[in-house]
Amino acid sequence: MQVPLLDLKLQYRALKDEIEPKLKEIFEKQYFILGPDVQSFEEKMAGYCGTNFAIGCASGSDALVLALMGCDVKQNDEVITTPYTFFATAGAIARICAVPVFIDINPDDYNIDPDLIEKFLDENAEKRDGEVFNRKTGRRIRAILPVHLYGQTADMKSILRIADRWGLPVIEDSAQSIGSIDGNMGKKAGSMGEVGCFSFFPSKNLGAFGDGGALTTNDENLTRRLRSLRVHGESKRYFHDEVGFNSRLDAIQAAILEIKLKYLEEWHKGRQKNAEFYNKAFGESGCSGIIGTPEVLRGNRHIFNQYILRVKDRDKLVEYLRENSIGCAIYYPVPLHLQKCFEYLGYKEGDLPESERASKETIALPVYPELTESQKNYVVETILNFYR
């Protein structure tokens, strides 16, 4: 039996009769960049996320850059974030010549630990003239950028309390968590901070046919600025108030995403059902000290963009699964504070132990909604055979 980590062909076959006529319509109109299809998707995206506005852009990575620029993060400003995430989170900070400040994660949900954010600020930050500065570096601390990793929100109630105390904007990296709900806030990812950032990379729960991204916000002025920044900072055609860049969502991707958005809740339920299957099977296996299943914290709604196990002998298990035709992946093998490109920040091994431990112990299993019962049983039995 073969079980790929993700099989998007199954999803496409179910939707091709809706998608292909819409693509033909766009080809006939020859209106490819922004336009009515993008506007229609933006309206539905905002409605789904529970925000007043959504702004389409070219990728989730660009969404992060646009959000940082929209929140006035400047060169040499510091942005508090997590090292245990996809590279784009910190890469976006570096791209605008700002400085990522890495705070370790909570080992239960792999998201940034609010207690450690508060500890960092209490020990290092001070307010001067309405701004927050790092006493040790002299740099301005400008924003907090939590990541809702794997499909579960970070502890936004605590993060927002800390941000409010210090007067810092919160930018939500929601790339993996469209539709996830914070149990304490009762709100969806991307609707709680100043701005939310989404990726529509094909492997996401809501995936495009290529790259695509979006931002969500309730701030009308910020919306206007983000829409300007995505088209070179234009206020009107050929008039530029500031230097932005080219990051526009195209009509093809918007149309596909709008069709898929109708099925997103159904797909979430399929992933949740598969996660429950795994949790039950591994929970009853007698391997509690060897296999750790995901925890859903604070009454959150987890949408399982990834199903993550914490295991012993992770690398050997990965090799064994691949030998047995089971797709798996490591998210992420090297935390960002130990990446070569961030050596200049001065972090060393041991500085952020929970992130480092997670990078050595976690593995992602297939969890997409089209998985069959026999495939899921095969995944579980293969893993248990490895440990037996």
Low-confidence stretches: none
Structural class: alpha+beta
Treating each run of at least 4 consecutive H or I residues as one helix, how many helices? 12
CATH superfamily caption of the largest domain? Type I PLP-dependent aspartate aminotransferase-like (Major domain)
Can you offer a commentary on this structure?
- The protein is α+β, with helices and mostly antiparallel strands.
- The protein has two domains: 8-261, Type I PLP-dependent aspartate aminotransferase-like (Major domain) (Aspartate Aminotransferase, domain 2, 3-Layer(aba) Sandwich), CATH 3.40.640.10; 264-387, Aspartate Aminotransferase, domain 1 (Alpha-Beta Complex).
- It has twelve helices and 16 strands.
- The chain has helices spanning 8-29, 36-49, 60-70, 88-95, 114-124, 156-166, 220-229, 251-261, 264-283, 314-323, 353-361, 373-387, and strands at residues 53-57, 78-81, 99-102, 125-128, 131-134, 140-145, 171-173, 181-182, 187-188, 195-199, 213-217, 234-236, 239-240, 291-292, 307-311, 362-365.
- A five-stranded mixed beta sheet has the order 3-2-6-5-4. The chain has a four-stranded mixed beta sheet with strand order 1-11-10-7. Strands 14-15-16 form a three-stranded antiparallel beta sheet.
- Helix 1 (8-29) crosses helix 8 (251-261), helix 3 (60-70) packs across helix 4 (88-95) and helix 3 packs across helix 7 (220-229).
